[in-house]
Amino acid sequence: MLAALQATGITVIVEPAPSRDHTYRMLSALDAPVHRSAERLVVEAGEPRPFEFEVPGDPSSAAFFVVAATLIAGSELIVDSIGANPLRLGFVDVLRRMGASIDVHINEARLGEPVANLSVSSAPLRGTEIGGAEIAGVIDELPVLGVAAAFAGGPTLIRDAAELRAKESDRIATTAALLTTLGVPVDERSDGLMIGDGESRSAAFASHGDHRIGMAAAVAAAVAPGRSTVSGWDATEVSYPGFLDDLETLQSTA
After folding, report:
1. Listing from the earlier edge strand, what are the strands of the sheet with 34-37?
2. d(Cα 68, Cα 17) in Å, to the nearest integer?
3. For residue 242, what are the CA distances in angstroms to 2, 247, 254?
4. Half-sphere exposure of 43 (CA within 13 A, CB side)
5. How many Cα atoms are found within 13 Å in the side-chain-facing hemisphere of 120?
6. Which of 17, 171, 179, 238 could form a disulfide with 184 if both were Cys (CB 3.0 to 4.6 A apart)?
7. What is the pLDDT of residue 254?
8. What is the 3-state secondary structure (H, E, C) of 180-194?
9. How far apart, in whole angstroms, are the C-alpha atoms of residue 164 and residue 191?
10. Per CATH, the architecture of 59-249 is what?
11. Looking at residue 69, what is its pLDDT?
12. Which of the residues 21, 58, 80, 140 is marked catalytic?
């Protein structure tokens, strides 16, 4: 879309399935010549107007703290000013379905995107099924949702998520390894996981060079009894250099 603004003539982008629409929302809010109908995006040559923008917090990064606050008894957490695009808060819908106590408070819009605060209180979780059309909206959060499932009552099935095998690691395999190390029975499948009930334990986790697996392991370590370690922690620098400091700050105020 950005390249098409500089191209001669009209560019048509066919979208067979809905994808995250941050760029479209931003360009529309800046009065750029972009148009959308059904499965088509039409972009004409032109320039968006100048702007100032305060970037909201990343919901995918917030998901780790939301899961931790849900699982650690007595927790209350407010996540301030995160992007609340409906295609980015699928993890909230899944956690609510599992019994989580999460309120979303929309505060404003910035460049066409809703911005919200999340209020989270600890709550017991139950297993669920995650699959179908909702997978696209939770694909980056599935490792930490797997951790949530490990501490839930009853089994959780994650299906239709074969895309996870082509991320920074094979996240089906590495999430299964994380949960197995945690002491939870896991059936690894071609497109997902069946996560059962188990007695969680402290463990020596590995990030497998994947930032989201490393942070999901840190959440598991924060919830499990005893002392755990996460090797390959430097992988988390890719997306959240201050994650451990923020986690420790939250735990110290609990």
Report:
1. 10-14, 40-44, 34-37
2. 32
3. 31, 9, 19
4. 22
5. 27
6. 179
7. 59
8. HHHCCCEEEECCEEE
9. 8
10. Alpha-beta prism (3.65)
11. 96
12. 140
Per DSSP, 238 falls in state G
Of 175, 99, 95, which Cα lies nearest the Cα of 184?
175
236 Cβ contact partners less than 8 Å away, ≥ 6 residues apart: 207, 211, 214, 215, 218, 243, 244
Q: What pLDDT is stored for residue 166 in this prediction? A: 87
- What would the two tokens of residue 43 be? 């972009």
- The DSSP call for residue 253 is T
Query: Where in the chain are the domains?
Result: 4-44, 59-249
Please give the structure tokens belonging to residue 111. Answer: 């460049």
Structure confidence by residue, pLDDT tens digits, 32-50: 999 998 889 999 999 889 9
Please tell me the distance from the alpha carbon of residue 83 to that of residue 89, in angstroms, as a whole number.
9
246 assigned to active site: no
For residue 17, give Cα distances in angstroms to 14, 38, 173: 9, 10, 26
Write out the DSSP string of 130-171: E-GGGGGGTTTTHHHHHHHHHTSBS-EEE-S-GGGGGSSS-H
Tokens 């956690």 belong to residue: 95
CA separation for the pair 178, 220 (Å, rounded):
9
Say what the pLDDT of residue 139 is: 92
Q: Measured in whole angstroms, how far is the alpha carbon of residue 82 from the centre of its chain?
A: 12
Per-residue pLDDT tens over the stretch 75-92: 999 999 999 998 899 999
